[in-house]
């Protein structure tokens, strides 16, 4: 701890170096609606003869800074299209007044702009910023008609596994945020949640491979999904509806509305979706004796079909108490139900491949998920420009109810009936989450900033599962398989972060300290003994970032980032109860899991927004992944800390207009992935070279027509014990603007060649081999319609492209 405070002292001293001040004038420009004005022309004139001394353009935040000024008296003039010019009184710069921070400059609309004019600038699909990559979802034609999970699958560098695990640049364990706030879900639960969120409600997706210290230290990377919120004056909105057909039918429909008037900004969304899918899984499992000879084998065919209708609503308000103080709230509600049926057929063979027995069964399940989230937020800006305090409190609850009924019938090789088993499985669970956080930003002199904050989170999960053996109408409790697991987790965190910019260099150094307190209880019953476990650990997570401009304009930059991060076991993974997929496949949790830690390093070169190349190295300890063991002919999968690992990767991105009508966005990642450990006494040291490529071709034609062709290819992939074969997919989308360009009609085709099928092998199994193939409903065609409506009282409609400073000011976590 002594070394920690020494580091914090050095960090503050580092920021204090910025106290030497040359003569400077700085300020910020806003319009009459209190929105910042990027791209305004700032002219510094001599007060004596009005000659131009220096000029500048305001940045994306409406800010400007005129530096290295001589002692003199000046006049400032600011102009912007559609606004009246601003002209200041005389400003004196001398040794007694070396630095002038002007009050906010307000530009009033010119008379020619008082009538409605709507200017909608087309944002690029990909924007490269200092600390993140931004994907503008509206620029993705196929986003309308897709779920949020499907939009993520089309996002460069992002991969979604069959189990719902989301990876970024080949690294699993990604922390997914919605408007800067964690979902506290993972795996299949997170995938189901994102499937119910229509793509039409998304504004942008932020990808952060090395997040700064103000973000949670959890996760290998962060994907922050920003939902739509419009700040133009008046009542505006948009509506979208879509339908797609494969083997199953899906629909996504959403309406977004926004009313902004003076001090109040109201916004909301409502949506209805119907997700449906099928999965045909084929398993070939070979069991060996101690002498490595075949002992028996099982061929298993599973056919799953499900539908998930759902509704979502979102309502929020921002209220400006004054020009400097704003508070707001957001309420989210989702309700989804799932009906599923899994049919399976098995053949058991002897060592000589002679049919021994036949199995047939089915699982019927129905579930309901209800999610409620309430957020209260506060922001206060002090007199010093950029100095602000923000605070958030959150309450989130996830409630699950449902049951599964499993029926298995066994027959001998000649077809005679030998056994039947029926089980009923009730699966209620509840997750309650409370969080509170505050962030303070304090600008220092000479483009230096000091940030500090804290966060507290309290999570309780309650899983109460009940098994019953069913015979006719009689249900007999099976206490050996029943389970009641309660898990509590408290995390207290504090951080300090400092950043500074020089003429060509920028640096950022941060430290985050997190204490985690965990308690897990498995309540006993007539057959199961009660157990409990406790964990308490404190860790320090440093982050560092350096950037250097190779030229005076900053068109070419080099950046180096270093961070330590943690992957805590998700609380669902700590529950030791068994979940039955079929008669031959079980899944269980592991209360003995430890956190996974890793250091990550990245060196990146970026040319404007057009081209970038990065070298990345990641070193992992206590890697958490699902491991499988064979017990007789049953495969049990559970999470374990079984290995150390490393990933060495090169990632490139290209964003280039090849012609007036063709823009290409290409991403290529080449990685070497390796694990070294032991799983169930078997050595686990798989090692592969992998490549991932994502191509997005955006085509612009005459008369409002646009097109999009996307392709994705991945070579062999490594996920713990599973090694998957190469696969690819190609998607098409065509769009036509209608209704005076306020509406659009889209035709969509997904996975044209039905090539996004999964084949994998499970390695390092003790006395077993396992091969798996899965085919799902990925080849689809669809149609989508979207329409913008409403009238703005003042018409200069802008899209704000958040830069690094905006991101640091945003309310997160």
Explain this structure to me?
Keywords: Signal. With 813 residues, this protein is mostly beta strands. It contains four helices and 48 strands. The protein has two domains: 2-113, Sandwich (Immunoglobulin-like), CATH 2.60.40; 126-809, Beta Barrel (Maltoporin, Chain A). The strands form five sheets. It has a 31-stranded mixed β-sheet that branches. Strand 10 (126-128) and strand 11 form a beta hairpin. The longest helix is centred in the N-terminal third of the chain and has 15 residues, at 2-16. The two termini are 25 Å apart.
Helix/sheet category: mainly beta
Low-confidence segments, given as residue ranges, are 1-21, 112-121, 793-813
Fourth-level CATH superfamily of the largest domain: TonB-dependent receptor, beta-barrel domain
Number of H/I helices:
4
Residues in helices, as a percent range: under 10%
Overall geometry: elongated
**Total of domains:** 2
Descriptive tags:
single chain, disordered C terminus, 63% strand, 813 residues, six-stranded mixed beta sheet, mainly beta, 4 helices, disordered N terminus, 2 domains, Maltoporin, Chain A
């Amino acid at each position: 701890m002594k070394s920690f405070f020494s580091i914090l002292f050095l960090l503050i001293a580092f920021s204090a170096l910025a106290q030497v001040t040359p003569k400077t004038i700085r300020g910020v420009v806003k319009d009459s609606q209190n929105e910042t004005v990027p791209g305004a022309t700032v002219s510094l004139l001599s007060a004596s003869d009005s000659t131009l001394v220096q000029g500048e353009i305001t940045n994306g935040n409406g800010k400007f800074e005129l530096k290295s000024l001589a002692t003199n008296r000046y006049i400032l003039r600011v102009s912007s299209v559609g606004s009246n010019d601003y002209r200041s009184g005389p400003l004196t710069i001398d040794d007694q007044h070396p630095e002038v921070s002007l009050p906010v400059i307000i530009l009033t609309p010119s008379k020619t702009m008082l009538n409605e004019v709507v200017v909608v600038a087309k944002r690029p699909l990909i924007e490269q910023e200092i600390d993140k990559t931004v994907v503008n979802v509206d620029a993705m034609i196929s986003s309308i008609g897709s779920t949020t999970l499907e939009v993520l699958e089309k996002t460069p560098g992002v991969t979604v596994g069959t189990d719902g695990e989301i990876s970024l640049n080949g690294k699993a364990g990604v922390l997914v945020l919605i408007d800067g706030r964690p979902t506290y879900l993972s795996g299949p639960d997170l995938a189901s949640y994102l499937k119910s969120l229509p793509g039409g409600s998304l504004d942008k997706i932020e990808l952060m491979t090395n997040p700064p210290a103000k973000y949670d230290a959890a996760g290998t990377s962060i994907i922050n999904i920003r939902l739509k919120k419009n700040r133009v004056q008046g009542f505006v909105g948009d509506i979208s509806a879509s339908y797609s057909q494969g083997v199953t039918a899906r629909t996504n429909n959403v309406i977004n509305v926004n009313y902004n008037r003076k001090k109040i900004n109201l916004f909301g969304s409502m949506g209805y979706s119907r997700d449906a899918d099928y999965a045909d899984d084929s398993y070939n499992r070979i069991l060996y004796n101690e002498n490595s000879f075949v002992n028996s084998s099982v061929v298993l065919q599973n056919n799953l079909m499900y539908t998930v209708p759902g509704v979502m609503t979102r309502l929020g308000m921002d209220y400006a108490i004054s020009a400097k103080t704003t508070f707001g709230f957001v309420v989210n509600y989702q309700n989804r139900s799932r009906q599923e049926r899994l049919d399976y057929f098995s053949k058991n063979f002897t060592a000589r491949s002679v049919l021994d027995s036949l199995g047939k069964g089915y699982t019927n399940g129905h579930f309901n998920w209800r999610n409620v989230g309430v957020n209260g937020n506060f922001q206060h800006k002090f007199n010093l420009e950029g100095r602000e305090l923000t605070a958030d409190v959150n309450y989130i609850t996830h409630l699950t109810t449902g049951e599964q009924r499993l029926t298995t019938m066994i027959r001998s090789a000649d077809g005679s009936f030998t056994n039947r088993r029926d089980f009923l499985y009730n699966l209620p669970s509840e997750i309650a989450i409370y969080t509170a956080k505050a962030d303070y930003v304090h600008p220092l002199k000479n483009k230096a900033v000091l940030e500090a904050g804290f966060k507290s989170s309290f999570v309780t999960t309650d899983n109460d599962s009940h098994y019953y053996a069913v015979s006719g109408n009689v249900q007999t409790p099976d206490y050996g398989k029943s389970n009641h697991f309660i898990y509590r987790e408290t995390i207290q965190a504090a951080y300090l972060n400092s950043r500074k910019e020089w003429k060509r260099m920028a640096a950022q150094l941060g430290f985050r300290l997190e204490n985690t307190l965990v308690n897990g209880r498995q309540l006993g019953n007539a057959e199961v003994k009660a157990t409990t476990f406790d964990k308490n650990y404190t860790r320090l997570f440093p982050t560092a970032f350096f950037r250097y401009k190779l030229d005076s304009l900053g068109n070419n930059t080099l950046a180096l980032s270093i961070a330590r991060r943690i992957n805590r076991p998700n609380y669902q993974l700590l529950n030791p109860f068994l979940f039955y997929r079929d008669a031959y496949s079980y899944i269980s949790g592991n209360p003995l899991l430890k956190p996974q830690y890793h250091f990550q390093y990245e060196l990146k070169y970026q040319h404007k927004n057009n081209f970038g190349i990065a070298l990345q190295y990641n070193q992992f300890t206590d890697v958490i992944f699902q491991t499988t063991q064979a017990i007789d002919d049953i495969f049990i999968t559970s999470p374990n800390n079984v290995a150390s690992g490393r990933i060495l990767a090169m990632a490139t991105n290209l964003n280039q207009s090849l012609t007036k009508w063709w823009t290409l966005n290409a991403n290529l990642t080449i990685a070497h992935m390796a694990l070294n450990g032991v799983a169930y006494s078997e050595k686990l040291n798989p090692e592969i070279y992998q490549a991932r490529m994502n191509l997005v071709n955006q085509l612009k034609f005459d008369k409002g027509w646009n097109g999009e062709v996307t392709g994705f290819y991945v070579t062999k992939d490594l996920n713990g014990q599973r090694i998957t074969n190469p696969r690819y997919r190609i998607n098409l989308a065509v769009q036509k603007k209608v209704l005076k360009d306020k509406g659009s009609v889209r035709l969509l085709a997904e996975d044209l060649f039905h090539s996004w099928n999964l084949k994998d092998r499970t390695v390092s199994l003790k006395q077993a081999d396992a091969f798996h193939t899965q085919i799902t409903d990925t080849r689809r065609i669809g149609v989508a319609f979207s329409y913008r409506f409403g009238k703005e009282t003042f018409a200069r409609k802008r899209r704000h492209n958040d830069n690094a400073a905006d991101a640091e000011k945003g309310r997160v976590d």
